[in-house]
Amino acid sequence: MRKRLLISLGLPLACLFLTGLYFLPPVNARLAWRVEELSLRVGYLLNPPARAVFVPTERGLAEPQVTVIRQASPTNTPDPAPAEPGPSETPAPTASPAPSASPTPTPLPLPEAASLSGVVYQDQHGRYNYCAPANLAMALSFWGWKGNQDVVGPVIKPDPKDKNVMPYEMVDYIEGQTDLRAALRVGGDLELLRRFIAAGFPVLIEKGTYLRDLTGVVSWMGHYQVVTGYDLPGDFFITQDSFVGADHKMSAEDILTGWRAFNYTYIIVYPPEKEGQVMELLGPDADETENYKNAALKASNEVFGLTGNDQYFAWFNRGTNLVALQDYGGAAEAYDASFEVYRGLAENDRPWRMLWYQTGPYFAYYGVGRYYDLLYLADGTLNAMQGDQNLEESYYWRGMAKAALGDTAGAIEDFRTSLRYHAGFQPALYQLKLLGVESP
Q1: Which CATH superfamily is domain 113-286 in?
Q2: pTM (whole model) above 0.85
């Protein structure tokens, strides 16, 4: 009897002691990520996130309209105050914006190979999802900037477990925290990479790749790389990859395939005195509107020449570019088509993290009044995470949908959650102000 009593008292005390020990900072720092990894492994095993698919329910129900949203690029911060809808100017889903008729300067012949030195390599390992700070620090270091990823990280990734840093956030850092400038464009190609490298400019690109995640499973995710060299006879590029290693060689085909997943997005970092040279190298894409028109045409052409994952990305890219051109009706139709292709992909190949990195569908569905589709898509994105659901953009847009549907209390809760994961997130702060609620 006495032994049973000691056991009944000892077990709870032992559990309490071990729990307290776990939360001691030195112990927690060593064990927390292992506990999270185990939890994610179990969650993904029981409920594979790639198994869930989004099926639009309001397709064709809403009247196409153009809702003007300032800074409307889906890679930019959502504008907190959309203007009133204007008349529809939405083309048919297969219509392609015409490219600019601006003359393109005759390019000088490129050398067969070129390689840029001077980038200070940054290894992202040992930090949580740190490819954006690491690669931004590398791109800046080429121009003599003396910081590193630990200087950049707290600014562009204030939540250490933030799943993604948007390209616009990197540009904001460059132009707000350094003496350098940045050009963010889409629709790039291999010739553009070679042209900039030959002229002395490394190129920071955003791409998709298959890596082993915290659960031990190889799956698709977003990644940044700095491209610093090329070899035409060998048909490869030299990249500074914060995950794989310095001077990592990649075939031109692998670069192109991964880059397609992010609308061929790229950032050129440069000193202010070189702006004229950068704009000349960009040619017709120096103008941002023309750049999105050209990228939309490129995506439209790819849609009908590709299959599988590549076709999914092409449809998605078309939607992304039409959002930037404020054609929300055409964008919504393109995203609908992309999700239809997604449903036909093999489960193991599905890029289920897509909405972690690109929020264009939220813009499009909100712009045409498809608030339930927006709500379901944001719900699905957050539920698939199964761990820390720290995607401020998804909470923001779910809040926008709830507000439009009359669920003010739910909207306020989502805007506040968005701010919990990204303190000072201006769109959420603005919406709370409109609702007469003090920010937390």
Answers
A1: Cysteine proteinases (3.90.70.10)
A2: no
